[in-house]
Amino acid sequence: MTAQASYDYHTTELKLSSVGVLGVTVAEVVAAQRTFTRDGVPIAAHGFIDFEGLSNGQAKKVAQRLQQAALARPWLYQPENAGA
């Protein structure tokens, strides 16, 4: 699934708001000592990062680290009217 298709699915089918799509690599997830699992639910391309076993504070730190990694590169998809 492309980043645009993911955006379209979440905003059109699920009726969620979004300003675009960012991403992290499996290597970045592994470096944060987490695992990525592709579960295919609700769509074939869906997956999740496992934060199990972390306190809320630890999970927040890992999430911030992954967010910084995602923001360090260009957006995977951002509609032309994002932020308008």
SSE layout:
Blueprint: H1 3-13, H2 26-31, E1 36-38, E2 47-49, H3 56-71
Antiparallel strand pairs: 1-2
Give an overview in words:
The chain has 84 residues and is mainly α. It has one domain. 39% of the residues lie in helices and 7% in strands. It has 3 helices and 2 strands, in the order H-H-E-E-H. The protein has helices at residues 3-13, 26-31, 56-71; strands at 36-38, 47-49. Strands 1-2 form a two-stranded antiparallel sheet. A hairpin with an 8-residue loop joins strand 1 and strand 2 (47-49). The longest helix has 16 residues, at 56-71. It is globular and about 35 Å long. It starts with a helix and ends in a 13-residue tail after the last helix. The mean pLDDT is 91.
